[in-house]
Amino acid sequence: MTTDTRPAPADRDHAVRVNDCALKLANVNGSGSASANMLLMKAIFRMGIPVSGKNLFPSNIQGLPTWYEIRANRTGHTARALDYDLMVMMNMQTYADDVREVRSGGYALYDSTWPLDPALVRPDVTYLGVPLTTLCAEHFSAAREQVLMKNICYAGAVVALLSIDVDIVSSLLDETFHRNARLRESNQLALRLGYDYACSHFDCPLPIRLEPMDANAGKILVDGNTATALGCLYAGATVAAWYPITPSTSVMDNFTSLCHRYRREPTGETGPDGEVQYRSDHLILQAEDELAAIGMVLGASWAGARAFTSTSGPGLSLMNEMLGLGYYAEIPAVVVDVQRTGPSTGMPTRTQQADIVLAAYASHGDTKHLLLFPANPAECFELAVEAFDLAERFQTPVIVLSDLDIGMNDWVVPRLRWDDAYVPDRGRVLDKEALEQLGTFFRYAGEDADHVVARTLPGVSEKGAYFTRGSGHDKLGGYTEAPDDYQEVVDRLARKHAAAALHMPAPVLETRDGATIGVVAVGSTEPAVREALDLLGDSGLPVDFLRIRGFPFAPAVREFLDAHELVFVVELNRDAQLRALLTVETGVDPAKLRSVLAYGGLPMSARQVADGITAGLES
Amino acid sequence: MASITKPLIPLVRLEKNSLGLTVRDYEGAMSTLCAGCGHDSITAAIVRAVFELAIPPHMIAKLSGIGCSSKTTAYFVRGAHGFNGVHGRMAAIATGANAANRQLRTIGVSGDGDSLSIGVGHLTHAIRRNVNMLYVIENNGVYGLTKGQFSASADVNSTSKRGEPNLLPPIDPMVLALSLGATFVARGFSGDKEHLVPLLKAGLEHEGFALVDVISPCIQFGDHEGSTKSYAFTREHETLVDDPVLLGEDEIIAHLPEDTTTSVRMHSGEVLRLRSLPAGYDPTDRASAFAYLEERKAQGEIPMGLFYVNESVPDVHELNETVPEPLVSVPYERLCPGAGALEELQQRFV
């Protein structure tokens, strides 16, 4: 079958659209497609066009379907699209599903080495056959290269079809393979093969095309887990303990490589086998489980280090016991939870915001934690630093609730900035001199305006010695079973938690003239919400938007709820957890809070939000 | 745990250590354990050991889990920071504390329930990491606070107070530790302080994970006939492998016959002299330690002493090449790469 002879369907949408397209690349995981997809995404970024890339991958190493979605949009709407202008079909297992997802008038690129099953042919889709396997078999001799280069070859075809700047793509390949001339040449050849084939067989570029613009000056392309690791590095964390778990593993992988780069120096001596020896200003412990990981963090924080752990839902479940200990014994801890789809093992490589209630009240007994909600990698960096300051100021665990979409996908965000004048807020810690001046030190007495008491560190002075315990204690730090003495301490803990509301990062507010309804959201749904509110605004429905960034909720949250007749709470879980937390913690009338929920495991799209609000208003 | 302050006025003039402190300066709150509890003897042995080693009290970090044994951290060294955490997780918390401040002399006190059931995962991995700490298991074979259930160290057919036999095979922490590559493996008896104190001292001086299993009869639920962790049974069946003495750096060690004495130089420079009671027992030979333990157990004996020691294995900090000073004292300026570095490293994000 040759695609270029296929008669064009009458209803095909051939209007030219510049810098507004969504493509989806259907691959087999473990086949080397990720680098080709990243190449396309990064080239579009370098062309100055707002762009996003979402990796929808299986919990598997090799052989299962995986997809990568790229959305370029000149107005900056880069939330996940639900239908696609161009589908690159590299996985026969999923041909049928992939063809179905192409928008009417869209395009499907496939490997025409093998004929396409006529059953897959849709009259409203243009099929672009590129004989990728044949091309690579003809030009590469090694079997592995013949397979791998198919990826760069289809990327070359896409570059031609969308008029992505081929020089940018070529220089990206040079940068990637600058140390390996042979690989560099193979990749350049594969790029050229696909590019030339598309140019000579199709009418390139397609009506959906890209042109350079200037939206990305001062911006970077980075994933949230990398940014979180950077935040922990800059905050001065010295002890990290963790247990590997998708999708948070790359937090610690990145922290490890950053520490090797910035926190390790050769001693100038060599070991018995001549190996270079180092001195490291950090200790990263791969724990036996998450129970131990958070235990190590509490131990290190108790001893005075800035310490953190990174995990995901199943790990957070295991950490409950220790989080209760940290809360009650008042020990700082930073926990980064890169949320994935639950419950139980759930879908480890899919996203959700379903740990909100668990995180807020983790552990048995009356416990409440401080939560931070980054919405993108730039905030992962900022809020990681903030998390350490808050944990030490309030002497309590802080849980940073990122998610897989933020953590593992590359986002275009403003370049990260650092103020060299930053001084860590270590909270109320009495040093030797302060203890000398003190009559007697009592661990849980002498609260400040935020109801925080002073702590001491081991190894400093006998005068500061006290007995840390998760068992009932009075304000002097002694064991108690006396109702009043017990209550005095837990009541102060409640006041301390409430006082933290004024120190949490302020919510982000976006208002529109004449709006009487509002939307509240946290985290990764922000691009979808903003796009949806633009759509609704264009259709005559102004809606205000409040993005919460911390728990306990800042007073502005209650004010926003009070100021609107109806508020839609948008979130990625089944049970409306954010709405539940708002209801319980602000005392707002639950009737005025409606939910827009998506919980299938994929990032939110604008259409889901807009449709949800419209449906909610009609009901 | 309830604590009662002890009267501090000594009745007799007390010996002072090199810091000018007496043994009373290393005591803690009054014990609230049952009168005659083996654990109190261990507390006294710990007090004696840290006094004799003249460790500044504030440089000690004492940690424990949950259970009768774990209460005892309140009963020694009041001038040390204590941490009574959650059940079974002391090893993890101690690992973190040691990671943050390697200069702390970390003492962990745990029980057989805490260490061999709920916390066995943490114990085993602390051993693997060779965390530099003294880890004491106050081992009585029963859960005391919940009134007498068998623990994982109870021997098969050892009976409960009500006469029911234990059916499950025991976990022997010594054999477990040897199999994991532990670097200091010793057993003592709460009823033999003379033997226990030098073991604890040597464990404290050991640079790495020192596991000291102390048979400590529970007088409420384990000190009856039929229990293999009673005072009587332990006294009757114990077999000492050594007569340990920790000597100072300069003390002469050579006056005993070579074939019955083993000397181990600790990292601190001190010398641990062990007079082997079974002639030729070599505590630096792991394979024979294994064989000896199994052989004695088969004979129904309870071997006591330092079964194995290895001073040459790097601890968690050496393995990770951590700076020699505590991480908590590294100034922030050295930890933060600064705005310039952030600017530069973001080149790979464009």
Any overview of this molecule?
The complex is a heterodimer of chains A (619) and B (350). Chain A is α/β, with parallel strands linked by helices. Chain A has four domains: 207 residues, 3-Layer(aba) Sandwich (Pyruvate-ferredoxin Oxidoreductase, domain 3), CATH 3.40.920; 182 residues, Thiamin diphosphate (ThDP)-binding fold, Pyr/PP domains (Rossmann fold), CATH 3.40.50; 71 residues, no CATH class; 111 residues, Rossmann fold. In chain A, α3 crosses α4 and α7 runs parallel beside α12. Chain B has 350 residues and is of the alpha/beta class. Chain B has one domain: Rossmann fold (3-Layer(aba) Sandwich). Chain B is built from twelve helices and 13 strands. An eight-stranded mixed beta sheet of chain B has the order 2-1-3-4-8-7-13-9, with helices on both faces. The chains are: A alpha/beta (619), B alpha/beta (350). Chains A and B meet through β9, α7, β12, β13 and α9 of A and β2, α3, α5, α10 and α11 of B. β19 of chain A pairs parallel with β2 of chain B, so a sheet runs across the interface.
